Amino acid sequence: GNNVFVAPTVTPTSGEGGGGEKKSTINSELWHACAGPLVSLPPVGSLVVYFPQGHSEQVAASMQKDVKAPIPNYPNLPSKLICLLHSVTLHADAETDEVYARMSLQPVNPQQQNTTLLSTDYGLKSNNKPQPEFFCKTLTASDTSTHGGFSVPRRAAEKIFPPLDFSMQPPVQELQARDLHANLWTFRHIYRGQPKRHLLTTGWSLFVSGKRLFAGDSILFIRDENSQLLLGIRRANRQPTNISSSVLSCDSMYIGILAAAAHAAANSTPFTIFYNPRVSPSEFVIPLAKYNKAIYSNQLSLGMRFRMMFETEESGTRRYMGTVTGISDLDPVRWKNSQWCNLQVGWDETSVGERRNRVSLWEIEPVSAPFFICPPPIFRSKRPRQPGMPDDEPSDMDNLFKRAMPWLGDEICIKDSQFQNAGGMPGLSLVQWMNMQQNAQNPPVVIK
Amino acid sequence: GNNVFVAPTVTPTSGEGGGGEKKSTINSELWHACAGPLVSLPPVGSLVVYFPQGHSEQVAASMQKDVKAPIPNYPNLPSKLICLLHSVTLHADAETDEVYARMSLQPVNPQQQNTTLLSTDYGLKSNNKPQPEFFCKTLTASDTSTHGGFSVPRRAAEKIFPPLDFSMQPPVQELQARDLHANLWTFRHIYRGQPKRHLLTTGWSLFVSGKRLFAGDSILFIRDENSQLLLGIRRANRQPTNISSSVLSCDSMYIGILAAAAHAAANSTPFTIFYNPRVSPSEFVIPLAKYNKAIYSNQLSLGMRFRMMFETEESGTRRYMGTVTGISDLDPVRWKNSQWCNLQVGWDETSVGERRNRVSLWEIEPVSAPFFICPPPIFRSKRPRQPGMPDDEPSDMDNLFKRAMPWLGDEICIKDSQFQNAGGMPGLSLVQWMNMQQNAQNPPVVIK
DNA sequence: ATGTTGGCTAGAAGCCGACAA
DNA sequence: TTGTCGGCTTCTAGCCAACAT
Questions:
Q1: Beta carbons within 8 Å of A244's beta carbon, 6+ residues apart
Q2: CA B159 to chain CA centroid, nearest Å
Q3: What's residue A23's pLDDT?
Q4: What predicted TM-score, i.e. pTM, was given to this entire model?
Q5: Helix (H) or strand (E) holding A250
Q6: Among A58, A62, A249, whose Cβ lies nearest the Cβ of B273?
Q7: pLDDT at A246 exceeding the cut of 60
Q8: Residues in chain B within 8 Å Cβ distance of A259
Q9: Least confident interval from A337-351, B14-28, B284-298
Q10: Burial class (CB in 10 A: 0-12, 13-18, 19+), A308
Q11: Which nucleotides of D are covered by protein (CB under 7 A)?
Q12: Which stretches of sequence are listed as region Disordered (chains A, B) (predicted)?
């Protein structure tokens, strides 16, 4: 194809405009490994849809508090903003290793669309980056106790760690791995016991106490492209971290988010947001192409069946089946006609930990296609799907879409200042698109 | 006097309006001991002057970042707001034990002054609350090392701790003290060694590691009114704590503060702020009476000599002499005619750690009085003042002011809805006062 | 294949007075 | 009066294989 220039999602510096928060030197593969398999950041230079409501909910989730407060209305702040994504930098909290991304967004002013709006010459999301070799293990009580070391899953040790010299008795080596802040950690890796197993001994307890890990937290190791060992952590869903920064009230935080977005929207100036994938209940910066694909391709209806990806314990993915049980605004007063999490859903398997009961249209894969009532059997996967098994290949529906509407692919390439080439709907100007949004808020929705 | 009802500065609940941040169960004496001897919170129900600029600077100080960013202008947000102080609750950060206060402020709308604006029937600042017995010690290397315990200053142990049974050999007892979160800490208190000294042994190291204390940090003990032992900590000025909350950009924080204040000012609705006394470079919520006393009583001039209180190492106070070297806005663009920190000053003693080079008029005590060139010798303290000695009794100038203008006392009592009784200038209505503020921003200033 | 436990040991934590400052 | 140190003791951290699941 035309993927001659590959723009990395991460820009190594963050020194523009309002920034200066902190320089990003984070390894991108490690960041994504920590963020989880479902998190993908929109490519720099592309158009995205920003939902202030979802942004607020991220703040709400990081406190343990609901919004519903005497927050001023921003009548000029719509429930969604189309923005140009200027930059994305990856970060990790110095205290907790929590990963987050800093994005600079510039609201697109319809009047300016024919000027040099899309002056960045390209923005590309490479979907075919190889998933790096990695493993993820949830720490047991024994792993975190002071009594011993870390028991390494056999597969993991053989896949990720440098091979041991098995002529030694017992086989031992020194392991070195860098964390998100590029700090080096050293472990003694030994293969011993009856039956034999891989263990990390000396150095392990320093790591556990240094990172303040507890049973239930997870550790993950990956090898980067230079086959250097990297390590990250994921904490269990403990009580929200930032009880409050002791310097800023929750109210001010909410207001700050909304005021910043409203001001940026009014002036078409860039603003800065933080996206914390493991705190946010749902993404709130969506590639415009993904949004359009979902809104204009899916026949949405009550009772509709769909599938949706979730993350597994071991950082894999699997799909769950669900049914749309309601279509309504999450906050009909403040965010009327927002499409962010406006679907109430039920799940086929109620078994394991409660799943979200509100999702957005672009998060789900309808099982009834807009063009076929049921996909022809020839497109179905050969082996029967097993519940609980990893399910990583693209879904049948994805393939269907790609055949039916090749212009809606996952790869977006912006080559000039034309709206439609930046992810917009084909044949529509941005002004037309936004008029559609205002006049008919849920265009192709059919309520049975 | 008429101090029949004594309103505590702390309201035990915080469940009003936009609140719900966290319930405050903090011991007021301990909070103030941790905050330091110079921190006094305005009484609930009184009028205060709020400086958005100072509030911004508190946020700036808690990050390591200057403001100067693409922050929208709030043309309707003046450099100072007169507010009714609805509530004050005391808090302590769960992670760091940092103390801070949550204040609910309602901007006073001049049009409403004759209505039920001051419906709270009183608001009283009792200045004669006895300073509780306390001591404060900066931890040494030995105190924080794992090699031993804590060496208790002799005076401190005898004044604060329960008396030992000196018939025992050696005298020992178990000590229990609660921290700001009401957690109980237990220490073995022993009097031994050659020469004899008070030590905390068993339990001490748990405390040090639990609170993550290092040499240079301070610990303080007080006895509350029930002679229960309480303990607090004060950290040395390490790098700012909240590097950023990983969920909110600095920009949004600044904007949030300003937008919240602007919205509240426009609608005369309450808003919430956090005041962190050990982070803020200077108070930004000033009792209106204190402000007026300073603005209308002090003949301000370049080269003026003054004294100002500072906190000592051991949490005492002493005064330093200084000279006004300049009068200018700290930020003439954004905060024109703000009186917050608009005095540039130099200090007589340049010796110990750099003192602030910008202060506000209400923080200083002019040495040349408006009524006397030099106070008559009869008012002078009998014993000569020694530099470096604690200096706790009211200054001569304070006494002079109290004799000359008894209505400007430290105790403010609001009995009805009259502006002047709530701390305003005698004989002036609030509208007149605000007009003065707008027309002649620095009324009695004389530039030589 | 891997979580937990008892046994053992090396080394850190921690109590003490000596000795300054 | 109190900070630091050497000496000594105690106890936990931490390595090991056995055993259980």
A1: A63, A250, B21, B22, B274
A2: 26
A3: 56
A4: 0.79
A5: helix A250-267
A6: A249
A7: yes
A8: 72, 255-256, 258-259
A9: B14-28
A10: middle
A11: 1-7, 12-20
A12: 1-23
